[in-house]
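Researcher: First entry.
Model:
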Amino acid sequence: MSKVKVLVVEDEIIIADGICDTLEELGYQALEPAINYTEAIEIIIDEEPDIAILDVQLSGKKTGIDVARRIREDFHFPFIFLTSNSDSLTLNEAKEVRPQAFLVKPFSKEELYTSIEIALHNFAESKIKEDDFVEKDSIFVKEKGVYTKLKFDDILYLKSSHVYVELYLINGKKILLRRGLNDVLNSLNNYFIRVQRSFVVNIKYISEVKSNSLKIAEKEEIPIGKMFKEGLIKRMNRM
């Protein structure tokens, strides 16, 4: 898993650097900050951040709200608005682009952390059933109180366990998610398929298929339900 990459778009460089330092202390990866719309878009294209903190007011003709509109239209990742002006006109304009959270200057380290975690959580939840989230190559999972990015290719298989889903990874680790198996499956791409009521596997790592079971990465044996086998074979033949 990798750290969540955060882009700060703030035209006061001292404030931007301070936010980036705090982000690093909190365990995130802070990208080089942008001071205007053009720089922000260039960094988004080059670095592919996971979340952005956008000052509503920026120097130049285009504002943080313009950056947010572009993110929603073309890049599809969460963003937080940063503002020192909380008047109703500014807030109403900002709300139109549906940010995942707001931060009002001055803010504390705890408020910054809370805003990012809420934004990542709300974005992930809102995208579970949307196609554009399924096309991406990773999901956010919470570990040790912080959201991190987990690539689909790092997941071998999933197992339903009561109110949890267990994610088994190629590095031998196991992650617990408090979500239903169907919800998690809908967050993944087409390489994942249900093979039994309690199991979802990553087709990329299937090494052997038997009459009533399969092997993942040549070692883990997973049961196959009768009603799922035909669909599994068809999916494998299309990949």
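Researcher: Second entry.
Model:
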Amino acid sequence: MTAHDWLMEQLESGQARFRVIDHPPEGHTERASRLREHALAQAAKCLVVRVATGRRSRRYVLAVVPGDRRVDLEGLCGMYGGSEAAFAARDVAERLAGSVSGSVMPFARHPDLELVVDPDLLVHDEIFFNAARLDRSVALDTADYLALARPRVEPIAQHSPPRRTAGRAATARRKTG
């Protein structure tokens, strides 16, 4: 069963209040939000983060923040008592999420993936996200999302800084000592 089919089954069997929105393929939060015609803050930006918790141990977190914010890697690192947090390698993120980058949904299906959602996303009556496909999104009632996904809710978002032209992978190291 594909991640999209799993999502639709969860929403229907959970009697969630939702709408499906078909649109041209888009995996960037800002552009997808324009296509779906909603405020960027209502978009569930979903990113898989690797937190190093020991010499050879790590945890993977599906961090979900409002579309107009960014993930606080240093905060996630501290939340898990880690020494470093970084975005997971693309192949690892896609395997754990069950969908391609840009279409990750705010539900953790894989047992090695812990779901953490920023409370600022949950202030809206409805949230929007790609439905494990680049060409289909879901508008989901926030209360129904919370009931179905049962996420850990923690402040994990920071305001987005101005865009940089040179792309570098983000990493945060926890200060010790």
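Model: Note on the second entry: The chain is about 25% helix and 30% strand.
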